[in-house]
Amino acid sequence: MKPRALALTAATVLATAAPVLGVATAAHARPVAKAPVVYRQKDSGHTVTAFVGKPFKVRLEVCGDCGDSLKLTSANTPVLHMTHVSLTSTAKPPAVGGEQFETWTFEARKPGRAAIRVVERRAEKGGKTSPRFRLTVRVSKLVVDN
């Protein structure tokens, strides 16, 4: 068999067998959605860029066992909309404790600027609140290159 014919036969076999074998080829590849960007305490005080229609998250650790809590003080604006909030722990039930994280999911709605602010209520300080996290978000229209 000539090299060109052999290469063509091999490509045909691979393209036909790839879906059966669970192997992705260029013809069968599906685009993978990127996970949302997650901002943490180390990002506080920064200005970040988000894109219209794309979600992002803010995830902060909280000492729930200490009686502390976090409160989002600036949320839904024409530029940003909070779509979900969750409180999770690294402790596996029935255990208690572990690291606890509060996560807010936002969606950028239209170009502009918005600020996300979180205050912390500390039980050991008599329930007084203090600033904990601040993020300035610049929202841009998503540009897609072809």
Write the layout of secondary structure elements.
Elements: H1 3-21, E1 37-39, E2 47-51, E3 55-62, E4 69-74, E5 80-89, E6 100-108, E7 112-121, E8 129-140
Parallel strand pairs: 1-3, 2-8
Antiparallel strand pairs: 3-6, 4-7, 5-6, 7-8
Q: Number of helical segments?
A: 1
Strand content: 35-45%
- Termini distance? 40 Å
Helix content: 10-25%
Q: Which regions contain 5 or more consecutive residues with pLDDT less than 50?
A: 6-26
Strand order of the largest sheet: 1-3-6-5
Large-scale geometry: globular
What does this 3D model show about the protein?
This protein is mostly beta strands and 146 residues long. The protein is built from one helix and eight strands. It has one helix at 3-21, and strands spanning 37-39, 47-51, 55-62, 69-74, 80-89, 100-108, 112-121, 129-140. The chain has a four-stranded mixed sheet, with no helix packed on it. It is globular. Mean pLDDT is 81; it is low at 6-26.
Please describe the structure with a list of short key phrases separated by commas or semicolons.
single chain, 146 residues, mainly beta, four-stranded mixed sheet, 8 strands
